[in-house]
Specification:
The protein is an all-alpha fold. About 0% of the residues are buried.
Amino acid sequence: FAAVFPQLGPADAVGSPSYEELVELKKRGQITDEQAEIFINPRPAEEFYDINADPFQFNNLASNTEFADEMEWLRKVLQNWMNETGDNIPENLTEDWYLMQPGYIKTDAYGIRGEMPGQKTNAVKITIRGRFERMDYSLH
């Protein structure tokens, strides 16, 4: 379940003057750690945050051994939910339609759709809502 792409945001954000300024600050080494977070590439395969202590989610606890049991439990919950609902991770994702730089520059993949999540497993025909409606998923 590796998320390898940076979290730059949607094309309208990436094409904005604000994003362009962040890119310039990054080039000059004047960007804060918090601002630079969107440029992390590749992203960690797993992210886990204590949103009460870290509401802006800057301290990834996924590799902290103190939370190993919670991480394993969450992996199982996710896999069970994917199995029940027919969700999957597509092998052929839709490629970015715009370059990840200011200016709304279209890529050669513009308008071409890849595989949608659940398409291979015909998830649209599955009416199970998944376990989240019937279980206590709070961490103890």
